[in-house]
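User: Please check token order:
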Amino acid sequence: MHTRQRTIPQGAQKRPPRGRRLRRTLGLLLGLAAVLQLAWSTGAFAAPKPPVKNNRMAVVADMQPSWNLGNTLDAIPDETSWGNPPVTKALFDAVKAKGFRSVRIPVSWSSHQSADAPYTIDPAFMQRVRQIVDWAIADGLYVVLNVHHDSWQWIADMPAQHDTVLARWKATWTQIATTFKDEPRLLLFESVNEPAFNNATDAQKTQLLNELNTSFHQLVRGTGGGNGTRLLVLPTLGTTPSKPLMDDLVTTMSSLNDDNLVATVHYYGFWPFSANIAGYTTFEDTSKKDMDTAFGLMRDVFVAKGIPVYLGEYGLLSYPDYTKPYTNVQPGEALKYFERLGYDARVNGVTTALWDAGSFINRNTLQWRYPTLMNQITSSWTTRSGTASSNQVFVPASGTITDRTLTLDLNGTSFRGLWQGGSRLVAGRDYTVSGDRLTLTASALTRLAGDRAYGVKATLEARFSAGVPWQIDIISSDVPVLSSANGTTTGSVTIPTRYRGDVLATMEARYADGSNAGGADWTPYQEYGRAFVPDHSAGTLTLTSDFLSALKDGRQATLTFHFWSGAKVTYHVTRNGTAVIGSAS
């Protein structure tokens, strides 16, 4: 175990003097011991507490919060193939400094392993993995090491190639377990990421995953050393937090009769909200219920039975993504999502691992890319924060400005006031509060809007009795203007767009008879970033080939672009063969 060593005071091994000096020395030593014991028990030292032997609940609780080294050792074929630089010890230093107590290190082994028996893993790659694991452990971080994209690269073929896949599986984990068998219990093994099986029934998938998890357990334990009692992390099918799949995992765990097992699932939110499709542009009640239900099930199925849950990945499907010119989930709605997730995890006793493929911490500069988002996430580990119905208030760039009202969601806090920078706004003059209704007065908005040029004119902070402040952008805008554009179904249609300070929320697509147009034909509201791609800074709005190729030939589709100000702009597109013509209404 990696614990802080205490220095033996000089002369401590010598015989102490008698009398008063003896009593004084003993008193000082007892006082020092008491202080050190208090420091360790209250977590005054930064390193995690040593894992409690055979107390898996305490160990996994001590791993909270956790962070994923995503798109790195799991990248195919190499560590830097997906855009991140090589891992350094300094990266773990920065992660630890942010408050994380454990890291998950996903590894895809197949590109560094012979495809035929005996399925040898490249020793140089194994040594690189070990180096990275040891860097994290040297920082006092718990580490979860797994088999990652191998799940779909070759493990998914188990229904048709059972014996071959099982042999490779055993060879893979035998090599990993043997290499790391003498590592401290700060290291955990996770059998496989998001297991799935091709061309199999649900019953067959359940049986195959049980076989893999059971085999993993037996062979790791059989390698000896620290692996005899190491915590082993087992997933549900697809790491999905549904009750039937979690019940199946409980059955597997019960059959193994081992008190050093941990359950793992993943959570990326209610899919329509996380993807921004079907009109789910806000973190509304259905999205909240989906989250509450998922975490409640984790508690009821696992935690209540004494089985700890490690939420191996969480986040939103495409937010944040620093590589894209748009955000498919509105940032304020994302803040509400992460605030509630932190709360749900705490009250249900779940340890959470943030999925980070490079969009949270910049791997080159080691700076966190989105401070407001990270502040919300880190705050959620210990307390709730107040939020509001929106973090945007739009005012017209010309004409009369009127009062604007937001609904506060206090989340158990109390409202303390509004600030602009270091200046406190005046209640009654600049804003009023009635119940959960916060109204910004026309006079205050007029002052804050200034010259009313397009864009963010001021940022306010609503402060509460706990948690982080809720930022509110005052934005000057007018109705956006779209121009005619042509393209092809195999390419795209890029529409010149003057956004005029506004921000796109979603796109609705229908034919003249009211039926839905586009690839997602079960809803008129198409998927943000897949069917359409806005670039507000470049002044373009692109209709993608995915959307255009799904249009019916010769039929005009009416697109309604919904903006966050409440503005709606209609546009028409018609496909003729592979040619597409777009025109403004």
Remarks:
- DSSP finds 14 helices and 26 strands in the chain.
- Residues 29 and 35 are 10 Å apart (CA to CA).
